[in-house]
Write a structure and sequence with these properties.
By secondary structure, the chain is α/β, with parallel strands linked by helices. It has two domains: about 290 residues, L-arginine/glycine Amidinotransferase, Chain A, CATH 3.75.10; about 80 residues, Arginine deiminase (Pentein). About 30% of the residues lie in helices and about 20% in strands. It has twelve helices and 19 strands. Strands 8-9-10-13-14 form a five-stranded mixed beta sheet, with helices on both faces. Helix 2 crosses helix 5, helix 2 crosses helix 8 and helix 3 packs across helix 4. The protein is globular, with a radius of gyration of 21 Å. The protein starts with 12 loop residues before the first strand and ends in a 7-residue tail after the last strand. The structure holds arginine (ARG). Arginine binds next to loops.
């Protein structure tokens, strides 16, 4: 049994889930790039080297790293569950034609479990099922090269499911292209011997979308959630209710954000770097529309209070300590936008005051050091092309509680 424990953004990291980018990145083509939520095509070999460096930094700091494909494969050890997974995958990939389904089923069943899982992640090009005549009208007329789409955003393990306290939210993704990523989390948390039977706060079958990049666990009592391009206010109400029901949570702080790609998730503009220090994009230093959500007096009721206030004030009050906000890119308007775009604000704290950052964001990184933060830079030329940084690329499974080691 693995115990899930995430009660802060900065408590010493013990266990984390990553996905080493695979062939799915080699399936990005210029024609379908935007649809797949990429701005450019990373070079896989270098992206993997950068990712391996990320893993090494974590392991050098005594963090145990789990890979998504391993956990999924381990969840499919029962043959019936594996077959059910293959059926669900084919179905959700949108394959309708019976013969195509049969071809796919036969192909995936011949692979060993880990290879099969990787194949579902990387996308299956038509050419892969060579020797088999492509029968469906769709396959014959369309120039689209895949039978099942690649999932290039999988290395952003932060998004499809989120560990909150001792449970998990299996997220409902906003865009079609990321929706199938949550199948993996669903299987892990249903069938993996170490992960089944955990509390579940949200299900992928819910209608309103919520993504992990918008969820920041600030303490046992306070969770911040971005109302963003990807996370819908209805989803925030639903998850707030289920968190209030089965945890000590007192406040969900819903932060209204511009609905645009540059700020797709809350963690693209705001991450916590130390117990009382945050890194934030300069546009968000001003007063914002913030909604404080609390338990209502009747079951299933919420009290929602609107504030036009700065994050600094709201967080200082709720975390009962003076918070410092460090501006990403310092106070230079050009650097702030440039570095935020390349995930300068998206740091991963491995303990209070120790953060992994992309090396390319030199101005932000220097400022963090001046503010007393220990910065561990990692290479990022290729990984950053997917628009996500160290926080997006990691899903903490276990952190020590803040205070447990101070
Ligand atoms: N937590 C995050 N900020 N994740 C970044 C995800 C980037 C990815 N290309 C997307 O658009 O979905």
């Amino acid at each position: 049994m693995i115990s899930l424990n995430v009660t802060s953004e900065v408590g010493q990291l013990k266990k984390v889930l990553l996905h080493r980018p695979g062939l799915e990145l080699e399936h990005l083509t210029p024609k379908w790039l935007n649809q797949l939520l990429f701005d450019d095509i990373p070079w896989l070999k270098r992206a993997q080297e950068e990712h391996d460096e990320f893993k090494k930094i974590l392991e050098d700091h005594q963090v145990e790293v789990f890979y998504l494909e391993d956990l999924v494969s381990e969840s499919l050890s029962n043959k019936q569950v594996k077959n059910q997974f293959i059926e669900q995958f084919i179905d959700e990939a949108g394959v309708i034609n019976k013969q195509t389904k049969k071809k796919l089923r036969a192909y995936l069943s011949t692979l060993n479990t880990k290879e099969m899982v990787k194949e579902t992640m990387s996308g299956i090009p038509k050419t892969k099922l060579e020797g088999v005549r492509l029968v469906s009208l769709k396959e014959r007329i369309e120039d689209y090269p895949f039978i099942t789409d690649p999932m290039p955003n999988l290395y952003f393990t932060r998004d499809p499911f989120s560990i909150i306290f001792d449970g998990v939210s299996i997220n409902k993704m906003h865009r079609n292209v990321r929706e199938r990523e949550t199948i993996y989390g669903d299987y892990i948390f249903t069938y993996h011997p170490s992960f089944k039977d955990k509390k579940r706060f949200y299900e992928r079958t819910e209608k309103p979308s919520i993504e992990g990049g918008d969820i920041l666990v600030l303490s046992k009592k306070v969770v911040a959630i971005g109302i963003s391009e990807r996370t819908n206010p209805d989803a925030i109400e639903l998850i707030a209710k289920s968190l209030f029901e089965s945890s000590e949570l007192e406040y969900v702080v819903a932060i209204d954000m511009p609905k645009k790609r540059a700020f797709m998730h809350l963690d693209t503009i705001l991450t916590q770097v130390n117990t009382y220090q945050f890194l934030v994009h300069h546009d968000f230093l001003k007063k914002l529309n913030i909604y404080l959500i609390r338990r209502g007096s009747k079951k299933d009721h919420l009290v929602i209070e609107h504030k036009e206030e700065t994050l600094k004030r709201v967080f200082s009050r709720l975390l009962k300590n003076a918070i410092t906000m460090i501006p990403c890119g310092a106070n230079d308007a050009i650097a702030s936008d440039r570095e935020q775009w390349n995930d300068g604000a998206n740091t991963l704290a491995i303990s209070p005051g120790v953060v992994i950052v992309y090396e390319r964001n030199t101005i932000t990184n220097k400022l963090l050091e001046q503010e007393g933060i220990k910065v561990i830079p990692m290479a990022s030329s290729e990984l950053s092309r997917g628009r996500g940084g160290p926080r997006c690329m990691s899903m903490p499974l276990e952190r020590l509680d803040v205070g447990e080691y101070e």
